[in-house]
Amino acid sequence: MAIEDDVLVVGGGVAGMTAALAAAEAGASVRLVTKSQSTLRHASGLVDVLGYADGDLLADPFAALDDLPADHPYAKVGVEAVRDGLARFDAVTGERYRGGHTDRNALLPTHGGAVKPTARYPASAAAGLASDERDALLVGFETLSDFDAPLAADHLRAADVPFDVRGATVSFPGTPRADAKVTRYAHALDGNDDEERERLAARVARVHDGEPRVGFPAVLGEAHPGDVRATLADALDADVFEVPMGPPSLPGIRLEADYERALREAGVNVVRRPVVDYEADGEHLTAAVVERNGQHVPHHAESFVLATGGLVGEGIDSDRGGVREPVFDCHVPHPADRYDWFVDERFGEQPYPRFGVVVDDDLRPRDAEGRIEFENLRAAGSVVGGADFAAECSGMGVSLATGDAAGSAAGADTQ
């Protein structure tokens, strides 16, 4: 039996899921194929649009978008696509996120004690804004080595935040193993009764010196984070917030659940299998070939979106022979000499983070001669070249903007 859809999206990250939702909204039947779970569980859960330009912190990311190079993904899709991508994110997350009331970046403390600019942030982190002048206590757990609260507080003071902050470490009720996953802490606090939460609050109360804000590592419940925070806040008589953590990330896992719910409600079929080949008729893609139980199964569609990630997400592959895009074999420009892929300066501007496929203004990948690779293929997210997501703090925003634009166009093409 032939597998046919209007739109096939390859890649299950934010860009792919956004593209799938946009295509479905345009009226297309959509299938999303991804070889693994979303990378969201490895992300902080913060949504960056543009945090830095030329090394300078940006208060308003939208004011700097027009000044980006012509090959930057934002320059390809335009400012309105960035706003459309954020609007779709807001529709997916609802009241679970903050920041949609303004174009300005918010500043949030991270688990390392840095201050990070971001356009959207979980409601669970809202009381921790670095622009808030109220004093704060950071609380870490003895068995959770990923968050050293006293050290994070030291770093925040060194960053000259406008409030007094200190850190303290307490034992978590039940004393989880030192190698316990963050979900173990979350599930312990998710219970139907408040016993674990109240025991934790009692231990924090011993080190709490009346600070109006108390920050915890982002492990305060997976299913009921709002209830957990409310219980702790009542017991401590303070606003409670979560500090974004590294992977695995509870805010990222919660966000992944929001997107999976949205995909189901939109009628998007999700297939967790690798794409190993493709079929094409000249410059027209006809199918992505999916490996399933040892068989190679063509998945046909009228329009395709490539959203497999960049070098980190394995959407861009590299070896001694060069750099390539492994799914549809799209062209990835790069210096022939591997030693020109990087510079020796520790904080120098590295070439390799910008590696990716080259796209036109309709996000269609182009070959080495500038010709369209496939007329019915678009690319979205970090597989698109031209941005240094880490240096710019722009990764999630680029995924939302290009995902929304690529999915909308792909869906419209099938109507």
UniProtKB/TrEMBL annotation:
Signal peptide per UniProt: none
GO MF annotations, alphabetized: glycerol-3-phosphate dehydrogenase (quinone) activity
InterPro entries found in the cross-reference section: FAD-dep_OxRdtase_2_FAD-bd, FAD/NAD-bd_sf, G3P_DH_GlpB_su
Any one annotated GO CC term: glycerol-3-phosphate dehydrogenase (FAD) complex
Name the UniProt record assigns to this protein: Glycerol-3-phosphate dehydrogenase subunit B
Keywords: Flavoprotein, FMN, Oxidoreductase
A Pfam family it matches: FAD_binding_2
Enzyme Commission code: 1.1.5.3
Stretches assigned to the FAD-dependent oxidoreductase 2 FAD-binding domain: 6-398
